[in-house]
Amino acid sequence: MTESTKQQVVEIRTGLSHALGAAGHALADAEHEAGEATTRWERIRAAAQSRERKLAAARDERLRSIDEWHDTELGALAGAAAGAADRAAPGAAGEPWHSWEPTPLAKPAELRIGRLLLPAAPAPAAPAEPGRPWPWDEDATVSPPPESPEVPALVQLLDHGHVVVQGDRKLGDDVVAGLLLRALGTSVPGTVQVIGYDPEHLGGGLAGFAALAPPRVLTFVAPNALSQLLDDLVGHVRRINETVLAGEYSSLRELHAATKRRPEPWRVAVLLGAGELNRHERTQLERLLRTGAACGVHLIVHGLRVDPGPGIECVTAAPGNDARMSSGGDLLIRLDPGPPPAVLTATCRQIAEAVAAGPAPVALDSLLPDESEEWRESSANGLTAPLGDSPQGTRVQVTLSDYPPHALIAGPSGTGKTNLIYAWMGALAARYSPAELAFYLLDFKEGVSFARFAPGRRDQSWLPHVRLVGVNVNTDREFGLALLRFLGAELRRRADAAKQHEVTNLAELRAENPEGVWPRIVAVVDEFQVLLSGRDAVTTEAVDLLEDLARRGRSQGIHLILASQDISGIEALWGRPALVAQFTLRIALPRARRVLAEQNTAAESLPRYHAVVNSDSGATDANQIVRVPAAGDREQWSALQHRLWRRLPPGELPPRLFDGDVQPKLDSSPDFRALVAEDSPAPVALLGETIDVMSRSGRTVLRRAPGRNLAVLGTRVEEACAVLATAGRSLAAQFSRDGARFSIACFDPDARPAAEALHARIPDCGWYDASNVDWLLEDAAAESTAAWPADRPHFILLYAADALPGGKATLDHLRTVLRQGPERRLHVLGWWRGAGLLRDTLGGPGSRTDPIGAWVALDVHGSELAPFYPGTGAPNWYPRPWRALHFDRSVHRGAEVIIPYGAS
Ligand SMILES: Nc1ncnc2c1ncn2[C@@H]1O[C@H](COP(=O)(O)OP(=O)(O)OP(=O)(O)O)[C@@H](O)[C@H]1O
């Protein structure tokens, strides 16, 4: 081998070994890189796996919360639906049968027929990864989806629409029975009337309701009378639209919401399997379906094809969970079973009894305008207010104006006369303000029926229109007379004003004298016949005044409402045709006789709580029957009275309340409170409260003049002492301490405490008794005849003057004082226990009585008073407890009745 070859080999080997070395390096590098890449890949794969797991967990968490939310939301929705259903169907409208009982509601509710089957919360889908548990399986604290509450399936009937039942016949019957019972049980007995048409079973379909037939809450029509029934119902709809809604309201529901009145019953016609309808029947049925609900005419149809339409609920009866109703969309219903027979019959019997007992009272509210409309009316032309509804559902308005001006109301006891007066007053008082209307109220019946209009101990409010209330005046006919006198004076005042403005009636006077306050006056006298019952001066004057007021009051806005419970009251007037003729408005309560015209017997057949109102003197053609709302309820009345009372501006005075059973108090007498110590030359002795429209004290003036003495006559110690105490206290109040002298002498031990009490009240008053009265009278007699002028008056109060001791001498002194004292300002105020005894003091039967210028008689008959009374007659006086007759010859034409002031 050549060197060169060897050289070449070496070189090649070297080259190869280099190459090998380089390749080895490259391989190692490559392997290293490959290892790193593998590690990186494995890290990435691990990271990807971990991320995937996290994402899955997040997804699971999200899915779980979505499911939870879905379940709660569904539960809440179902709960809300159940709550709403409870509100829409309270009480007997929605209660399940096992706890059901009738509960009349204020307005119609939706009625339950079964239970809505709401979609349940969906069962959770299978977990995505088999074997991987759902979170709530892992965590025992997470609860399973909640159960849905029960949501009743409700249908609307009364005031809303009609119900058509299809499907299973037997189950459909149960739906009809259930609906009907719920409708009856949620309304006031008698306000839902059911008309059954059941040609197949001749009423058998409604057999459970049989108890409602006798009071005609349920009536059946014959199998061939469907046409007639539909015509009748259409007739009702037309009538109600024309006369009840009268264009003012679109439905009875609206009328009720606005006026709180429901003048028509709901009429529910139940048509069970009518077969095929002829054209006329079909047309009438469609009319009713369209227009009936607004007029309270509703149909429950079962077994008759009816096209769906607005206001028509279609119930498809089916067993189990397969029933449906048109307003429920796709939701299924489980129908309730029919009402249990025991519940059904008991309820029907209960309703029948309630209906047979008579209509339920209508509330006073139905007569009242909206609060925003109160006190808006003008009485310039008259006073008009509703008194209730007629049987046809129209409002009966009653007017007092120039014609008819006055009203006569009659009704035997308990028929609701007082209630009618309250209702009328309430309806008027809510419409007319006190500047438009004033009430004067007098009740001759025993009791306090009108007292509620004046402030009392329990309730300080009063009816703002009331100016005067007289209660318990049955023995104080004088109070009635006082009212008539007062109204007579007001009549003259108005007539004078009318003359001055050259007008003839109140409307014109108000137009001419807009700034004047000329309210119409309504004087109500309940049991007025008591006022006219005696054959005496009171009756004579009362009748004269009544005649005048009735004749002339009409144009001066003075209206009389006379009420009487028995025929004698009306007959008291009957003898005075001219007077009766003025009372053209006649109101008769059930069984009232003779108040309407002789031949008009409408009141005889009136149902309870109704009245005949007749504005044409009782002529039969003018009869209007009205159902009067209940106004007697104190709470309802108080609500109205308080509302009106709060409208009064502050400072308005309450009405005068005259209560014949209450003893007046001197300290409350305005006349007594007005007395001032001015040492008057004409001091006034107050004696008692007069029976008058204004609170006024009977009085006698003890001026310097003959006869100015006072005698109190009778045996009643307490009352005699009360009169003397009033006289003494009132006189003392008019003098300064030294301005007058007072002396009291008492000879009756029974009167001594009262005499001593008066003595204690009068400063520096002298006290005398049997032991020293002779000195007093001797001095007084000397003073009476003295020549020098008296510097101050001396009042001598003698208790039991007829028992004066001291024999003739003392008696002569007393006679001297009585005759001559007053001119020298010495006045005797004495109590004699009989009129004859006073006569004895004065000198016996033939003696003059003029030293006694004023007297107050207690239990002394009128005839005994004749000697002390001018003219030939005697005053008309029949003694009665705690009343006295007062006469003062210097001012009176006739005697007046007074009420002694009670101890204060
Ligand atoms: N329209 C009515 N609605 C409901 N209840 C009435 C109605 N009218 C009267 N009443 C009730 O009947 C009863 C007798 O009524 P009210 O006192 O008015 O009769 P009256 O004829 O005035 O009787 P009396 O003359 O004996 O007082 C009362 O309890 C009253 O609440």
From TrEMBL:
Origin: domain of life: Bacteria
GO molecular function: ATP binding; DNA binding
A Gene Ontology BP annotation from the UniProt entry: cell division
Pro residues bias locations: 122-133
Keywords linked to the UniProt accession: ATP-binding, Cell cycle, Cell division, Nucleotide-binding
UniProt keyword Zinc-finger present: no
InterPro entries recorded: FtsK/SpoIIIE/SftA (IPR050206), FtsK_dom (IPR002543), P-loop_NTPase (IPR027417)
Annotated segments matching region Disordered: 122-148
Cell division found in the keyword field: yes
Entry binding sites for ATP: 411-418
Residues of the FtsK domain: 393-598
Pfam families (UniProt xref): FtsK_SpoIIIE
Record protein name field: Cell division protein FtsK
Organism field: Actinoplanes cyaneus
